[in-house]
Amino acid sequence: MEDVHPKFLLHLDKITEKKNKAKIFFPLCGKAVEMFYVAKRGHTIVGVEYIELAVKQFFEENKLSFATKPVREIDGDVYENEENNIKIYCGDFFKFSPSLETNVDGVWDRGGLEAVDVDQRGKYTDVMKSVMKRGAGCVSEVADRPKGEGPPFNLSADQITQLYDLKTPPEKVDYEPASEILKSMIVDGMFYYYYKIHG
User: Fold this and answer.
1) Is residue 44 predicted with pLDDT exceeding 60?
2) Residue 74: closest CA among 55, 60, 93
3) Which CATH superfamily is 6-198 part of?
């Protein structure tokens, strides 16, 4: 998307917990424009992405300089713009760990968990839980589509509860009817769930 996602703006306070300077995590971030939007408002940004081109495009399209250094833990590199407190790690998401980043205040998970293979969901949420602080808020976008179709894959509230070891089921805070492109992929729409990591 070229513009900031309307649902992101609507639920940003849930992600930041209304903090002025929150550390926000964008898993499988691509070149999400939301990262620079919140960075300009004083928040610290941590993204993880596998495709190098997407990471470079993020900095180029936002006219941001960056420095890189190798990160052996993820078999990749980190791209950093210190001026705006933006770090994007480019490498293997499943090798990401608290040795690189921790104490994340909030998460915008637009399509990450629903995109990974079903048998890798546990590995994905293990990474998420390891870097998020206790009580961190997460807003996740989940596809409303038949089971077995994907990616993106169907993901129920019960499955999110189990994967994140939640004490209470995630709150369904929004629903967005599918665009024509998504309808052609047998997607009826998108659920938006909000939940807190308990640690």
Assistant:
1) yes
2) 93
3) Vaccinia Virus protein VP39 (3.40.50.150)
